[in-house]
Design brief:
Blueprint: H1 3-13, H2 18-29, E1 44-45, E2 54-58, E3 66-70, H3 76-89, H4 94-98, H5 116-134
Antiparallel strand pairs: 1-2, 2-3
Length: 135
């Protein structure tokens, strides 16, 4: 797991209960905006997410993959998941991203606080990123 993602996981493991949700909401507020030359219409939808989420994987430089996410402000859980992936994986190498365990999000400890359906959305985002990098 890339160091940046491991650090995010560690941060979540250091807090309990509702503090985990508060941290997820902090991440949601920190989701980077899309670059001016990227429109949501050109991005890949992730229909497994309960809220509208779009992602773009720029693997032009496989040593520094760029990830961009778009999710509405009224979907803080989805935005939080996207922001975690952005913080932990943006700028990493394709090989490092492909090596991330598919179920890494279970280490965040959100299972008791967030429905399995919502957690599946995070898994779907990672799966789609990996699929783009393999193709």
């Amino acid at each position: 797991m890339p160091a940046a993602l491991a650090e995010v996981v560690s941060d979540f493991q250091e807090v309990e209960g509702q503090d985990k949700l508060a941290m997820l909401l902090e991440f949601a507020n920190e989701l980077p905006p899309l670059p001016s030359d990227l429109e949501e219409a050109a991005m890949e939808p992730v229909p497994e997410c309960q809220s509208p989420l779009f992602l773009h994987v720029d693997a032009g430089d496989r040593e520094h993959v760029r990830l961009h996410f778009s999710a509405p402000a009224e979907a803080p859980t989805t935005r939080g998941f996207a922001a975690i992936l952005a913080a932990g994986l943006d700028g990493q190498s394709a090989d490092d991203i492909l090596a991330v365990p598919d179920d890494f999000y279970t280490d965040l400890g959100l299972g008791a606080l967030i429905s399995p359906l919502r957690l599946r959305g995070m898994s779907a985002m990672l799966t789609r990123i990996k699929r783009r990098l393999q193709g």
